[in-house]
Specification:
402 residues, Nucleotidyltransferase, domain 5, 16% strand, binds adenosine monophosphate
Length: 402
């Protein structure tokens, strides 16, 4: 079974093609385009590349196309992306303005180009369906909660992969198995003692931190929208709700302009004034740029804040795992986050940390109670696997438990 996973941005298309002739699945092809102005052409080029590379002979070889979709009103899990679901995504475009519109547009393009291939989305909030109610709530009136003002949590595919892989690396195959079959109805939930507590730090263009007990998320730093939690590359992160009416009234700018600034001109870019890429910001900070240094410090401060929250909530942690572009590749950011917390049993090994870039590694000191690890994420594999399950189980509307 061949499944294409398409990652859609407002100006990008990236893909991985998986072959599931064996259970684990393997990548047959990966590629992508940046600075895309015509997504229809990009989709056509992608199909041509796959055909030219000989990994498909025609689109008929595709059992399905999977998407790491973000948010839909009152829908989550792994679902067929029909018009009803696309409309539910459109209904919350205001919540995910940088993410939902490109996905809706891209899915419609695929639907036109490959009308006979099922298009399936694994929503990024599906991993948080077992989060306790208290961790979903903002302190707003009940009617607002019913209207959708609530914490969702995102980066579900990435944090789920970390839940699986970290458990394997920690020798807890029971937890790894549970994490892998989390969305499978009737799958075993039997877990040996003690509980496995993992803090997963997805630090990239978009950043979030999850607390995970025995493969199941207990919360995520991202709340109602993918603009919350830690500061992101150019999106704001957490902000007091009253900042918005204040800035509209005091600066006389429109709500649309506020949304644009919070989505495109804020985060690490807004604070540093340098770039939305942490590599440029780290370089500028090294050269003495104080705003760049502040942006770096803010990312570290915010990451520590959320790690601390989950450490406290779980009564400690067995592992802290770093993943995604920054988490996998930046020893400086990891060292900053883990500095001075030896009294909590968290002690980094500076040499191992420096050597670990883009590969699996343990970077804690031998006497650290909490293992600190770097684990490259594989969100596309999580999506592909759920798409496969969905296709094998077509009769049920969703392969997820929700
Ligand atoms: P992602 O969203 O996971 O693709 O991560 C993108 C982010 O990772 C960007 O902000 C990049 O600057 C950052 N990144 C990529 N490579 C490195 C690196 N070698 N060192 C530090 N940050 C990196």
């Amino acid at each position: 079974m061949k499944i294409l996973v398409a990652n859609l941005g407002s100006t990008s298309l990236k893909w991985r093609l998986f072959d599931f002739s064996d259970e684990a699945g393997r990548i047959l092809h990966r590629g992508g385009y940046e600075r895309v102005s015509d997504h229809s052409k990009a989709v056509e080029d992608c199909i041509n590349e796959l055909t030219r590379a000989g990994v498909i002979s025609s689109v008929k070889d595709l059992a399905g196309v999977g998407f790491k979709t973000i948010l839909a009103k009152d829908i989550t899990g792994c679902v067929l992306l029909d018009e009803k679901v696309l409309n539910a995504m459109e209904a919350v475009n205001y919540v995910a303005p940088a993410h939902n519109p490109p996905y809706i547009k891209g899915v419609r393009i695929f639907a036109e180009r490959v009308p006979d291939v099922p298009l399936i989305g694994l929503f990024e909030d599906a991993f948080y369906q077992w989060v306790p109610e208290v961790a979903r709530r903002y302190a707003v009136p009940e009617e607002w909660y019913s209207a959708g003002i609530r914490r969702h949590g995102f980066h579900g595919a990435s944090h789920k992969f970390i839940a699986e892989r970290s458990a394997e690396l920690l020798g807890r195959n029971d937890v790894a198995e549970r994490a892998k079959t989390l969305y499978v109805k009737g799958a075993s939930t039997k877990i040996n003692k003690p509980d496995l507590r993992v803090i997963s730090c997805h630090l990239g263009g978009s950043s979030s931190i999850s607390g995970i007990v025995n493969g199941v998320a207990i919360g995520n730093s991202l709340g109602m929208s993918p603009q919350s939690g830690l500061p992101h590359n150019n999106r704001v992160g957490d902000l007091d709700a009253f900042a918005i009416p204040y800035i509209i009234r005091s600066m006389g700018i429109s709500l649309d302009e506020v949304e644009r600034i919070l989505c495109k001109e804020s985060g690490l870019k807004g604070v540093s004034g340098v770039s939305n890429d942490i590599r440029d910001i780290l370089k500028a900070a090294d050269e003495g740029n104080q705003r760049a240094k502040l942006a770096v410090d803010l990312l570290i401060f915010s990451a520590r804040h959320w790690i601390g929250a989950f450490y406290f909530e779980m009564g400690g942690a067995d592992a802290i795992v770093f993943t995604a572009g920054i988490g996998e590749n930046s020893p400086d950011i990891r060292a900053g986050i883990c500095a001075g917390i030896e009294s909590l049993g968290i002690k980094i090994n500076p040499e191992a940390n420096k050597d670990a870039t883009g590969c699996e590694a343990v970077i804690s000191a031998p006497d650290s109670k909490v293992k600190i690890m770097v684990v490259p994420t594989n969100e596309e594999l999580v999506v592909a696997r759920e798409v496969k399950r969905f296709l094998e189980n077509k009769k049920s509307k969703s392969s997820c438990k929700i």
